[in-house]
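Study this chain:
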Amino acid sequence: MDRLIQIWGESLPQLLAATVGATIPLAIISFVIAMIIGVISALVRYEHIPVLSQLSALYIWIFRGTPLLVQLFIVFFGLPKVGIVFGAWPAAIIALSLNAGAYNSEAIRAALSSVPEGQWEAGCSLNLTHTQILRKIVAPQALRIALPPLSNNLIDQVKGTSLASTITIADLVMVSQQIAARTFEPLILYTEVALIYLVINTVLTFAQSWLEKRTSRFIEN
């Protein structure tokens, strides 16, 4: 127990610095971009826009059907072979964003499709345009439906950043590997890392519940 307390006490500042300096920013930046990708892709498919809808479906099929780790390796190690070179951070953001964007797209599209057709008819009876119905009636209802899966995607995104260590980013996992190699205590270090991830995702889970309640009240009002 003394050994555990000693190692945790010495390593915690370094691990928290890596969490704040790499893991959390990487998750936030990539998820914001993934949300933009997801919204655009979902709307393209929901509106059945020719060509773009098929391209969007192809993108989703590829990124949902292949492992994130392989996608990271293709962007960071593979693309330089054809003259496209990205640094570790841009490569991680690109891979994480495209991967999460595919899942976000499906969550948003499913939410939009679940809104009853009667809502469109009600909007037409009020002489609203197609865009106005989508923005003022359908989208708010779809948001409440999409919030839980999108929140789950964010939690997965946080955990997915752990793979960034494989392309030289000094995130929480890489720093813990370095400390474990120095102290020869991998069990203690990786348990500490697991607890840090657990705390982050527990906070996100509570935030999800709060957002769901706020969104429901906003729509009802």
Observations:
- DSSP finds eight helices and no strands in the chain.
- Residues 2-46 form the longest helix (45 residues).
- The two ends are 54 Å apart (CA to CA).
- The helical segments are 2-46, 52-65, 68-78, 88-114, 117-125, 130-160, 172-183, 186-220.
